[in-house]
Write a structure and sequence with these properties.
This protein is of the alpha+beta class and about 230 residues long. The protein has eight helices and ten strands. α6 crosses α7.
């Protein structure tokens, strides 16, 4: 609680020190990023989108109905994983239930799609972030008509229906434009190709800032992951 009183031209402010005190940010003692094996990524995406009971099956069906087919070759799939560890357990904020965490990991896996020989590109993506008992997974269909990645759209599953979304890609792009160097922002315009090639090009131009923005876009400011990957809204 903060109380204030005035005496002449002097304003006196008294603060409750216990309420005002904020815990120091966790110290990151380990931060590792790795490119995932393409064969393993393919298997993961086959499981996520291909089986009859696959969670993302309807997104894959929607992509096929819109004329998209999987791209073959080296630019078919890609993925990466980032792991961070704090020097001590991170506790939930006061009034929030949940077990303390000390490590956070997020993973991005993408399959490139294309509509015939046109410039229309799409991708099926899975985004997973986890820390201790907490986890969140998203499945998305990304579309860039005529190769316009700046105007790309997202679709997700909601109540077992494919619906428009503004989620991971929207947050990632906004973060790259607002928090990274000019060369990174420029890459969002000049890079092209399939979604796999495009993200590889943007990632090369943005460096660590790309993985940071990908992490905060996956976390969505949840307490159990933002201590490591940040909050895109901050």
């Amino acid at each position: 609680m903060a109380l204030s009183s005035s005496y002449g031209n002097t304003i006196i402010v008294a603060c409750d020190q216990e309420e005002e005190a904020m815990p120091p940010p966790p110290i990151i003692v380990s931060d590792q990023t790795e490119i995932l094996d393409a064969h393993a990524v393919k298997g993961q995406l086959d499981k996520q989108f291909g089986g009859a009971q696959a969670k993302g099956r309807k997104l894959a069906e929607a992509a096929q109905q819109r004329g998209y087919q999987a791209v073959a070759g080296a630019q078919a799939e890609t993925g990466f994983r980032r792991r961070l560890k704090a020097g001590a357990p991170v506790k939930p904020p006061p009034g929030t239930a949940g077990a303390p965490v000390q490590e956070v990991e997020f993973e991005v896996a993408i399959r490139a799609l294309r509509k015939g020989q046109s410039k229309d590109h799409a991708a099926l993506a899975t985004l997973t972030i986890k820390a201790g008992p907490h986890s969140e997974t998203q499945e998305l269909l990304l579309e860039a008509p005529d190769g316009d990645f700046g105007g790309a759209s997202e679709s997700k599953l909601e109540n077992d229906q494919v619906v428009p979304a503004e989620s991971w890609w929207s947050a990632l792009r906004t973060c790259l434009l607002g928090k990274c160097a000019t060369t990174c922002a420029t890459s969002l315009v000049v890079c092209g190709g399939t979604w796999v090639a495009y993200l590889a090009c943007v990632g090369a131009a943005c460096g660590l800032c790309f993985t940071r923005c990908a992490g905060c876009a996956s976390c969505d400011c949840r307490w159990w992951c933002k201590w490591g990957v940040g909050c895109c809204d901050a």
